[in-house]
Specification:
The protein contains 21 helices and 2 strands. The protein has 450 residues and is mainly alpha-helical. Strands 1-2 form a two-stranded antiparallel ribbon. A hairpin with a 2-residue loop joins strand 1 (412-413) and strand 2 (416-417).
Length: 450
């Protein structure tokens, strides 16, 4: 697919440079998302906490999305998409650089505060960048254009996973959780401080990168004006009322909540699932428990990287397929496939279940941008507020991981290992996405083929 075909404009405006720069932001927030997912396991080990307590990382991370999406939308309506992106980059950088004092303080909660501020920035970025991309060209190709831009998000995610595996997890002290629990206070404190310094390093580096991107965006000419600039009818109250009555939009927000919950739970808890499957095998091979746990975590993260490669590749492929098939119909088919694979994760287990969990990412690939494009396609002058609602739906990534973690902490549920049973959470999420895809496939026409 040629990028030019989805950037065509009847007005003759060139969107190429702004499209490239804004698409870089998609990769940047992908990096943040997927360097963070393994931190649930890492912080649980560093601070000797339960999986549920460690999942507070995701609560702080995706809670920032929810809290800042509506303020971001109001800010964008008053100023511009470009101003929203610059604000997002600034907050993202500030949160990343907060890892320096947080690591020196040595307490869990300053890290949660840093994650919250960082994701307030991501909320600004996503609330600005997604509708910005939709506006860069003809409406007929908007969903495909957003899928194409979103295809670079998993490239950033891959970088985040790679950094987490090679510059955080592999450099942390290899002692198992049980061995750490037996340390005296002084020894535990020394190990903890060393590991926290390891975690902080990559976040500080990305903070510096963000400053550079901020400068480039600042210098960029803004080619798109807000859809509702100066329109009093687009005030918050009337806009929310109209959006609430718009069923495709309202149901899209619900579907997005469940999709993001599914994505984050699958990518976060593949580490726990893989460790539960692989660690006993390594111990049987004669490894010490600490080394067996670290090796299992590293190989689980490697499988997560493979899953992300599949996710990234399939997103490009599915974007091309949208020239020939309804986006909503593809959404339904992909959700049905993920339901089948998630049942394999729960009931088959072992290595086969682990490979099913990798396969889930293949079919998640088109879900976020497709739900976003379908939900936002008919809201007109309410685009900024509508975008905020869809970003607030990312709250699913905050609420559902602690729920899944609490199931894992129970040990055994209905005769199944807790880590297996916990994937009932994303199973329910994929059923909700399937319902939205089926509903919209009956209402929408095939996307034009240019």
């Amino acid at each position: 697919m040629k990028a030019g075909s989805i950037l065509k404009s009847r007005e003759g405006v060139s969107y190429v440079i702004p499209f490239i720069l804004v698409t870089c932001c998609f990769a940047l927030w992908g990096f943040a998302n997927d360097i963070t997912n393994p931190m649930v396991k890492s912080f649980s080990k560093i601070f000797r906490m339960s999986v549920t307590d460690g999942a507070l990382v995701q609560l702080a991370f995706y809670g920032g999305y929810f809290c800042m999406a509506l303020p971001a939308a109001l800010f964008i309506k008053k100023f511009s998409y470009k101003a929203g992106i610059l604000t997002g980059l600034g907050l993202y950088a500030a949160g990343a650089l907060m890892f320096i004092p947080a690591s020196r303080i040595g307490n869990y909660y300053p890290f949660l505060a840093a994650y919250f501020i960082l994701t307030c920035g991501l909320s600004f970025l996503e609330t600005s960048a997604n509708p910005f991309i939709l506006a860069m060209g003809d409406r007929e190709t908007a969903t495909r254009r957003l899928n194409f831009a979103q295809s670079f998000n998993p490239i950033g995610s891959l970088c985040g996973m790679f950094v987490a595996m090679n510059f955080i997890q592999s450099r942390m002290n290899p002692m198992s959780s049980a061995e750490r629990s037996s340390l005296d206070e002084a020894s535990f404190e020394a190990v903890k401080q060393a590991d926290l310094a390891v975690i902080a390093g990559p976040y500080v580096t990305i903070g510096v990168v963000l400053v550079v991107v901020f400068i480039l965006i600042l210098m960029m000419r803004n080619p798109v004006k807000n859809t509702a600039a100066g329109d009093k009818a687009s005030a918050l109250g009337p806009a929310v009322a109209r959006l609430w009555k718009n069923r495709p939009y309202r149901d899209g927000v619900i579907a997005q909540f469940f999709y993001v919950g599914a994505q984050i739970t699958c990518w976060t808890f593949i580490i726990q699932y893989g460790t539960a499957v692989l660690m006993p095998e390594y111990i049987q091979q004669g490894m010490e428990p600490g080394l067996a746990e670290q090796t299992a975590e590293k190989n689980s993260q490697l499988l997560n990287i493979i899953a992300m490669i599949c996710f990234c590749s399939t997103r490009f492929i599915s974007t091309w397929l949208m020239k020939y098939f309804k986006p909503a119909a593809m959404l339904a088919v992909f959700a049905a496939a993920d339901i089948v694979l998630t049942l394999g994760v729960i009931f088959i287990g072992g290595r086969a279940g682990l490979y099913c969990l990798v396969g889930v990412s293949v079919f998640m690939s088109l879900m976020f941008p497709t739900i976003y494009g379908l939900a936002l396609g008919d809201v007109g002058k309410d685009t900024e507020i509508g975008a905020a609602g869809l970003i607030m739906a990312i709250l699913g990534g905050s609420v559902l991981p602690p729920l899944q973690a609490s199931i894992i902490d129970r040990g055994v549920v209905a005769g199944l290992p807790g880590v297996n049973a916990s994937f009932a959470v994303p199973l329910v999420c994929f059923i909700a996405v399937l319902a939205y895809g089926l509903m919209r496939s009956r209402e929408t026409r095939p996307a034009p083929t240019d």
